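Researcher: Next sequence.
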Amino acid sequence: MRFMLSVALFLLVVVPVSAQSQEPTFADLAERLLPSVVNISTMQKTAPDAAGADEMLEGMPEFPPGSPFEDFFKNYMEKHKKLLVPKNQRVNSLGSGFIIDPAGYIVTNYHVIQEADEIKVTLHDDTSLTAKVIGKDRKTDLALLKVDAGKSLPAITWGDSDKVRVGDWILVIGNPFGLGGSVTKGIISARARDINSGPYDDYLQTDASINRGNSGGPMFNLQGQVIGVNSAIYSPTGGSVGIGFSIPSALAENVIKQLKEKGSIKRGWLGVRIQTMTEDLAKGLGLPSSSGALVSSVTEGSPAAKAGLKQGDVILSFNGKDVSEMRKLPRLVADTPVGIEAEIKIWRQGSEKTLKTKVAELPQTEEEELAGKADEETPKQADVAAVEVKGLGIKVAPVAPSLIERFGLKNDQQGLVVVEALENSLAVEKGLSEGDVITEANQEKLGSAADLQKSVNRGRDQRKPLLLLVEREGELRFVAIPLTP
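Model: Next structure:
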């Protein structure tokens, strides 16, 4: 009995100690990294708001001309109006950043310093310095600042976010709610998140606590390398709920390098409009999988046009890198140096082809679409009789002046106009609506409703989806509609 009791006591003591020894500690890592993370505060001046003062004085009594009270209340109101209108207003915001060069170069978010009239950087030792903007990029939400500290500053290095796996430990340091130098830990919850913040979304998601003021701060791997720039959170309350997003270093490092060297960004440009591949679209195009980016239109005179890319092509890889999904292509093209020759692997009419193109620079401003205008008003004509396409649940008609006016179409519009879309039909389920123009079916031009009906019947017999090219408000997109006998 005495022996058994001693064994039991031994187990009670040893098990908790063993479990405790397995808990990770980030103390050494945090101590090494904290001096490289800075707090950023900005100030923005706003114009005086005289209209606001007028609203506050509404309801004051008015007196008829010549009244003994007129001058008294006029002077009273003018005096108090001046007091109510501030000479200027100062709007302050807080964020984070990190030092990437001992000379004083600091990375942060674009939205942290956006429209700031004054930027202050506070180092880990509480030294406050004025920063100037070296460059900023709204599309990736990144900015590069520079401070002159009169000494070498502790800098940190970039890591490879492409090697990060879901479940890896990470460390976040920043300035939440202005508290400064706060450390939180977590794991990578997901990769390649698209949160609709810009054309190059490819965020790392983490459950580490990220709050207001953490924006622009670094996300570290366990080697102390920056693998992400904290940029956004999902939160119904404004505080952390365990869903934070960081710009991966694979994207940020290249952008910051260009900002440091040139002060601006030069992005590659191909000149295509693309859309997401779906299983139905893949079947309609004869593709074995739904990977790739479907070309819905090609810009005239663009590198894509010169290379021979066509509407309906599916881009499978660009410059040696696979396009596993549509939204990867814009980033691959943007990251490609301007002027180099890139190889494009495409799928066209049942087989793979390889094209080559010289990458151009993305235009600074988007081209404005020119709307055709008739020199004279077109006489009104009666609507052309609409014909129902059996199996789709829509009625279509050839383009006519009355339909051009009714749906705001281009004067040179070609194709079949959806005049009526029946509720709960296959076509409506896939997104078609009245006013859409169907220009192609299974990559063949349409001249009449009979042409479209033939394509539907053929697709039913072959058990293949119907692939439509649809134009809506000047934008072309492919729509795949599954057909069954």
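Model: The longest strand covers residues 89-101. The first helix runs from residue 2 to 21.
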